[in-house]
Design brief:
The chain has 405 residues and is of the alpha+beta class. Helix content is 25%, strand content 27%. The protein has nine helices and 20 strands. Strands 5, 6, 7, 13, 14, 15, 16, 17 and 18 form a nine-stranded mixed β-sheet that branches. α1 packs across α8 and α2 packs across α3. The longest helix has 21 residues. The N terminus is likely disordered. Flavin-adenine dinucleotide binds next to α1, β3, β13 and β18.
């Protein structure tokens, strides 16, 4: 209800906002990472408030749509070990949700000779972490998966545990479990101001302000706006990316039991999935989009980028490019080194940031647990040292930029 001051301004705006209840932790942003954090916090017994500016499950961020790749193959032993913990965290989510979520398909990382993403660190990291893999020449890849048309100089790294995790569904389940464990999750509730009061944190929304001992920022493409409230900044770049679904003429050839998830490890880098969950398969370019902000971005797919993807598929995976089903957009929020940003914000010990650098979905349940550990115990057993917010890549004036990993 709004009254009038007689000068054309709603009287309500002049009154102080009602103070909402206090919480142990407020989580801002309920995409995959914030939902995971809210769940982990509530599960640990904390009084948690999760705030999401749009409706839960919206398509303006990074956690919508069906499929995300989960894989152990990574370019450092640390990520490979972290992926092992992520698989365990997904298994825990599956148990709690009583639902199968991880679809194991096996994964192929395809390296043309001289690829922009070199295979050496991947192989060495898997070996260092004791994860088995197979190194296949092009002929063997095409013998096993005849849909690929590869030049002789392409080699494939096959890792049997790779697969699919469900983006929107996984996020929704973590929200449900968070609520079951007592978290208060409010959608359509934008955080308009954040204040570090020293002994606590104040979070302002249009209807109420809330206090908490800790604040967890999982705002991805909007992270910069929130950190600016605290006088802080991270060198994040947001790009508008897109993915396309195609209906292959022979969907059975691309079924999850027969066809793997795959990544083309060159520049441009492409990736794709089996047919899942319907009759179409998804493919996309990794980091091919224009720089945008969360507010300046559009929602129409870029036809030039769509052609680039279709051209690649016609050359390397022609049977996959059946009728175009649809394309859609999403946002990547990139750090200069493409490593995550996880940990306390410099100068604001009560504020924690969790940012997945556009490859974080597979780690979401694990990152949520890490953020809960940090918020409740000031530490975690998981080695997150490469993701510290005070690392040179996030603090140096002119950091080296490398998005392809
Ligand atoms: C097309 C695409 C493909 C990808 N593929 C993979 C993949 O195969 N494997 C993989 O592991 N990862 C992948 N990723 C990356 C992964 O999906 C993201 O890292 C992850 O989903 C990010 O989750 P998030 O919760 O941090 O961000 P988001 O889902 O964007 O959530 C952030 C939320 O914060 C909310 N918010 C922001 N500011 C405020 C505010 N002031 N008040 C209230 N709410 C606020 C936003 O509305 C939003 O809902 C992909 C990403 C994209 C876009």
């Amino acid at each position: 209800m709004t009254g009038s001051t007689g000068r054309g301004r709603p009287a309500e705006r002049r009154r102080p906002l009602p103070a909402g209840p206090s919480f142990d932790v407020v989580v801002v942003g309920l995409g995959a990472l914030g939902s995971a954090a809210a769940w982990a916090l509530a599960r640990a017994g904390a009084r948690v408030l999760g705030l999401e500016q749009f409706e839960l499950g919206h398509r303006r961020g990074a956690s919508h749509d069906h499929a995300r790749i989960i894989r152990r193959s990574y370019h450092t032993p640390g990520y490979v070990r972290l992926a092992g913990l992520a698989y365990a965290a997904w298994a825990e989510l599956e148990r709690e949700a009583e639902e199968r979520l991880v679809v194991t398909t096996g994964g192929l990382d395809l390296f043309p000779a001289g690829s922009a993403i070199p295979p050496g660190p991947y192989r060495a990291s898997l070996e260092a972490a004791g994860v088995p893999y197979q190194w296949l020449d092009a002929a063997e890849v095409m013998r096993r998966w005849p849909a690929f048309h590869l030049d002789a100089d392409v080699a494939g790294l096959w890792q049997a545990d790779s697969g699919i995790v469900p983006a929107a569904r996984g996020t929704e389940l973590m929200q449900r479990l968070a609520r079951n464990d007592g978290a208060t999750l409010l959608d359509r509730t934008p955080v308009t101001a954040v204040r570090d009061l020293g002994g606590s944190v104040e979070v302002v929304t249009p209807g109420a302000s809330f206090r908490a001992a800790r604040l967890v920022v999982c705002a991805d493409a909007w992270t910069g706006d929130l950190l600016a409230q605290l006088g802080a900044e991270l060198p994040l770049v947001v790009t508008q990316e897109q993915f396309s679904y195609f209906r292959p003429a022979d969907p059975a050839a691309f079924a999850t039991g027969r066809f793997p998830v795959w990544i083309w490890m060159d520049d441009p880098s492409f990736y794709g999935f089996p047919v899942w969950p319907g009759a179409a398969l998804k493919a996309a370019q990794d980091v091919g989009g224009h720089r945008v902000t969360a507010t300046s971005r559009g929602f129409d797919p870029d036809p030039v980028a769509a052609d680039r993807l279709a051209g690649f598929l016609r050359a390397r995976l022609p049977a996959a490019v059946g009728a175009h089903d649809h394309s859609a957009t999403c946002l990547y929020t990139l750090t200069p080194d493409r490593d995550f940003a996880i940990g306390p914000l410099g100068g604001h010990d009560r504020v924690l940031v969790g940012l997945g650098a556009a490859h974080g979905f597979k780690f979401a349940p694990l990152i949520g647990r890490v953020l809960a550990d940090l918020a409740l115990h000031d530490g975690t057993e998981v080695d997150i040292s490469p993701f510290a917010l005070d690392r040179p890549a996030l603090t140096a004036p002119d950091p080296e930029v490398s998005y392809l990993v």
